[in-house]
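Study this:
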Amino acid sequence: MPVAKRVGQVLMPVVDQGGLMAVADLAGRGLVAGTVVVEPVDDGLGDAIASVQAVSATGPLVMAVDEEGGTVQRLDALLGDMSSAWHMAGHPIDDVRVAARERAEAMAGLGFTMNLAPVVDVGAGPGIGSRSFSDDPLLVAVFGSAVAHGVLDAGLTPVAKHFPGHGRASADSHRQLPVTPPLEDLVEVDLVPWRYLPPGAAVMVGHLSVPGLTDGVSTSLSPEAVDGLLRRDLGFDGLVISDDLAMGAIAGGMDIPQAAVLSLRAGVDLLIVGSADGVAAVAWELVTALEDGRLSPGRLNEAVGRVLEVRGVDPCGFEWE
């Protein structure tokens, strides 16, 4: 696979419905793995997504959306209101799984392939609130697993977030880098739900500083957090996605292309990189990092392999012109 297209397979910009035209241009040149769609949306969304898929030069794309329910639901204008996680936790587990499946089926009908949910953060700290199921890690584990299973039942990929746990952190990562409780406390509380994820679920790594693990470095840029804690210690071998690298926790300290190199090196496979306008700069930095040795071809190839697997693309059976 040519290096420009290989780099593109780990990049995913964030756009609204109107921005899907820009994604179609990138996808037609093989320069993105997919996109994250945010509001506003209207009745033309399904056709717009289908148009992007139709021109993709690298096979089916990831079409992702944050459809958690409550305060974070991008599709309520089309699909109706969805309960928050905190509210879901007051209902029977089976009902929650069914509701998640039905919502994901409706999302699939619009062309989505991935739901950036469930939130499995323990606690309702800054930036989380009712997005969390509970302060009890076992309740979070049970209800988070139910939602993930429901999404899988509908044929979509669920993405559990925000590893290793944003629920008791000190701030909202949209604005600044939060600090979590020390690692030894996370092990007893925040890490519990991550052990209950069903096969086929992906993980989103949050922008968090963990005393005793990353000590001032964001978990999304930290090999100790991703390759160490998530993959080695917890045994997770699926797709790892970054939270948006354009958020204040990252963008306040470095530019997005630089963060993309560090995140990929840390073990993240699929990078959410802000707007479509910034994709070219991120791709250029990744190519440069391959050339100057900051990024190994093996690490990139590993990430590309996981992304293509989730997309259902066989890299050995595709013409990479």
